[in-house]
Amino acid sequence: MRTIRDNSLISVAMASLLTLAVSILPVHAQTAADAALNMANMLDGAGGGISSGELLAALQNAAEAGQPMAMWQLGTMYENGEGVARDPAKAFGYFAQIANQHADAAPKGVEADIVARSFVKVGDYYKQGLPDAGIPADANRSHALLLHAATYFGDADAQYRVGLLYLREDELGVNPLQSARWFSLAARKGHCPAQAQLGELLFNGVEGIAAQPVEGLMWLTLAQERCLGTADAGWIDEKLNNALSLAAPDVQSEAAALALSIAPQFAGF
Q: Contact at 8 Å (CB) between 240 and 197?
């Protein structure tokens, strides 16, 4: 029979792993969310005899102690049904806890990505609604949460998604200038879907934005290279091929050279 001391030792070990995972984050190479996943992978099946039940209990203890990485890991586990029964209400609870407790965390802090992504997650739940958790669909609240992640934390994925909202009348209203602004912020952080969307806007030009075919084709080229092999590759290839079919040879050459020259800027993303 295991004792209270046994469980305490597991919790202490978990806390130590969480601290270690944060302390060894390489600059620009890994996020706190990546570290949380790596931590789970280290313990899964190779945890020195720690069972899945003990791991879950230790994560819960760490979450109760205020560890955002533990809350994030539990949220993703319950959201995806990994190691536990799928439970969107519990997942929402953990993501909301991170957002509520760390809304004003340092934007460049080591765990800022987890907090920003939690705002995005909670926003997604409010967008669709979650009746089991008593959460009604609330588009305005969803937008506000996404905008906080995009503005205060400068999260690239949130900025990209805000850009998409400005392309739809039923979301934030069609505003190509605002859309291009948000896509540009995300694109310059290496977000390849944002690079593709920005490239198309610049290549074709829209109301308030004169066509800039060279720069537009440059962004589309970068996006195609960076998103290769991802779920976004198909629609990005389509946008690039369409632009290439319309671009003059000198525009294609200039854009290719420009893309090659600035590609190293995104190597660390």
A: no
Dihedral sign of CA atoms 35, 158, 228, 78 in order = positive
Q: Report the chain's C-alpha Rg in angstroms.
A: 21
Q: What is the pLDDT along the chain (269 residues), one digit of tens a residue?
A: 343 334 443 344 444 444 434 443 433 334 555 555 555 554 454 444 445 677 888 888 888 888 888 999 999 999 999 888 999 999 999 999 999 999 888 888 778 889 999 999 999 999 999 887 788 999 999 999 999 999 999 999 999 999 999 999 988 989 999 999 999 999 999 999 999 999 999 999 988 889 999 999 999 999 999 999 999 999 999 999 999 999 999 999 999 999 999 888 876 65
Q: Which residues contact 194 (CB under 8 A, 6 or more apart)?
A: 156, 159, 160, 163, 182, 183, 184, 185, 186, 187
DSSP 179: H
Query: pTM score, two decimals?
Result: 0.78
SS3 string, 185-245, reads HHHCCCCHHHHHHHHHHHHHCECCECCCHHHHHHHHHHHHHHCCCCCCHHHHHHHHHHHHH
For the chain, what is the largest distance between any 2 Cα atoms, rounded to a whole number of angstroms? 76
Query: Which position has the token pair 């092999």?
Result: 229
Q: Which residue has the tokens 């879950």?
A: 56
In order of 14, 28, 117, the CA distances from 106 in angstroms are 24, 17, 14
